[in-house]
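Quick one:
INPUT:
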């Protein structure tokens, strides 16, 4: 699934008031973190993630790893916060065309 500009803008607006649901610390992507990401994405579809590292390249790699392993789309990344989206079977969030 690939998001177009209108859908990305819509999801960014929905994500703005959200707080980070998952935080990734110095341990990186552990099995527990991946499990939490999966369960949270199943329920919420739109998720803010805080990555607590100062290394930009590492943050970028972690976000790519998260998106590829969870089949989610990156909506936005600003600093240490990333927003990802994966529709669930119930499609709680209706995307514009």
């Amino acid at each position: 699934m690939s998001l177009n500009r209108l859908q990305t803008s819509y999801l960014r607006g929905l994500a703005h008031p959200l707080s980070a649901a998952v935080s990734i610390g110095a341990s990186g992507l552990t099995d527990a973190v991946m499990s939490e990401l999966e369960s949270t994405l199943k329920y919420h579809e739109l998720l803010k993630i805080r990555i607590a590292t100062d290394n930009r390249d590492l943050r970028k790699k972690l976000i790519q790893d998260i998106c590829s392993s969870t089949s989610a789309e990156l909506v936005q990344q600003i600093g240490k916060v990333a927003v990802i989206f994966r529709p669930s079977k119930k499609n709680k969030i209706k995307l514009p065309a």
